[in-house]
Specification:
It is built from eight helices and seven strands. With 268 residues, it is an alpha/beta fold. The longest helix is centred in the middle third of the chain and has 26 residues.
Length: 268
């Protein structure tokens, strides 16, 4: 067993039906964890069914979760504990990005990003901590990993509100880590800052950048990101997922309240 081994751990991953969330669910399962995939998309059930298992009776599950709904969070945490026997790892990954110039931004789009990215993450912290802390339904402590973005650390055009919401995720992470430590919850709380990854969301962002006139084409938008990235490439789902496994594992046992850039140096 290594410090990255998650055998015996129980994880809940929001937004796990596709993209980064699916990759994180797969990486956690590959490291030995039992994983519950949570999403508003029922395709998350397929993802859960395809996760790697072993001969030790480990199982995975799917729960439908709208992260903006407190009732959904209460049910999802209860279902997770019932399905896999506890909760040691929560990944608050669910998020949305709506591209727009500040002069053209829609109040409805602002509210939607605030609800999913900020409210959703806050409710995840609330119910994850309640379950993991002493006396909670799981009660064995654990690790929460929030997903922020390199957008929280740089000024890239067209994503002002998204950037603001991901900056909020960073602040939520640090305050929650302090509260957890001071109150003896035994839960470490960290976040990652992913760079641009060519998932459906990443491709959509590049297309939107061209549509609103910031770049001549989606390829130009991607090239601009790569040009600002010292590693000289876009990220991969595996790059981000492996960082989440690290923060969830005993290798990060003395790490809390931290933001880990996984962006090829773009946000330095």
């Amino acid at each position: 067993m290594t410090v990255f081994d998650l055998t015996g751990r129980r994880a809940l991953v929001t937004g796990g039906a596709q993209g980064l969330g699916e990759g994180m669910a797969r990486a956690l399962a590959s490291a030995g964890a039992s994983v519950v995939v949570a999403d508003i998309q029922d395709s998350g059930e397929r993802v859960a069914a395809d996760l790697p298992t072993d001969d030790g009776g480990r199982k995975h599950a799917f729960t439908r979760l709208d992260v903006t709904s407190e009732a959904d969070w209460e049910r999802a945490v209860t279902e997770t504990i019932a399905a896999v026997g506890g909760l040691d790892i929560l990944v608050n990954n669910a998020g949305i990005e709506i591209t727009g110039l500040i002069t053209e931004v829609s109040p409805d789009d602002i509210r939607r990003m605030l609800e999913v990215n900020v409210l959703g993450t806050t409710l995840g912290l609330k119910h994850g901590l309640r379950a993991m802390r002493p006396g909670g339904a799981a009660g064995d402590g654990g690790s929460i990993v929030n997903v922020a973005s390199v957008a929280a650390t740089i000024a890239f055009p067209g994503i002002s509100v998204y950037s603001a919401t991901k900056s909020a995720v960073d602040r939520l992470t640090r305050v929650a880590a302090m509260e957890s430590g001071k109150l003896g919850y035994g839960v470490r709380i960290n976040c990652v800052y992913p760079g641009l990854v060519p998932t459906a969301m990443g491709a959509g962002l590049a297309n939107d950048m061209a549509t609103i006139g910031l770049f001549g084409s989606p390829d130009e938008a991607v090239a601009a990101v790569v040009d600002q990235t010292p590693s000289g490439r876009l990220g991969t789902v595996e790059d981000i997922a492996d960082a989440v496994v690290f923060l969830a594992s005993d290798a990060a046992r003395f790490v809390t309240g931290a933001g880990l850039p996984v962006d090829g140096g773009m946000g330095m």
